[in-house]
Specification:
The protein has 158 residues and is of the alpha+beta class. It is built from 6 helices and 7 strands; from the N terminus they run ααααββααβββββ. The strands form 3 sheets. Strands 3-6-7 form a 3-stranded antiparallel sheet.
Length: 158
């Protein structure tokens, strides 16, 4: 018996997206890729995933065109987000906003801000002050667990 349903051929776009993105490991891997971690060992250490779990998820994410290898076929080649992978950023922002809503004073919060003006985001994908979209190039994250020091998602990407 399968552990979950296969929605890859569903006609509903939410079901089809959930088929790829509803896995918690995928969300954590995406978080780390947006944070600038691109190598297998960095992703493993940051997520706590076992090698076999991480390898399976990265293979599935590659097949779903969320990530690609910087040097395809090369051993130990880093991963990078594709255009489709970068489109998942508002989903991660929505999770971060939900976490703050359910535990506003919790120690593990993630603040999402606009890199252009510094405004804390009130939505998952738009800056209310600049009236512009929040994407990987225009977003700052600050994790309470890291002392609320903002860091850019644009960083040093391959």
């Amino acid at each position: 018996m399968p552990l979950r349903s296969d929605w890859s051929s569903a006609t509903c776009p939410i079901a089809r997206s959930a088929d790829v993105l509803a896995d918690p490991w995928v969300l954590l891997i995406l978080r780390e890729l947006f944070s600038g971690r691109t190598r297998f060992d960095e992703l493993r250490d940051a997520t706590g995933a076992a090698d076999s779990v991480l390898a399976r998820r990265l293979t599935a994410m590659t097949e779903a065109a969320l990530v690609e290898r910087v040097e395809p076929g090369a051993a130990r080649s880093p991963y990078r987000l594709t255009a489709a992978g970068r489109e998942t950023l508002p989903i991660l922002h929505a999770y971060a906003r939900f976490s703050r809503a359910t535990d506003p004073d919790g120690p593990w919060g993630l603040t999402v801000s606009c890199a252009r003006c510094g405004e804390v985001a009130l939505s998952a994908d738009w800056c209310s002050r600049c009236d512009a979209s929040l994407d990987a190039d225009t977003t700052l994250w600050a994790r309470r667990s890291m002392g609320d020091v903002p860091f850019s998602l644009a960083g040093d990407r391959a």
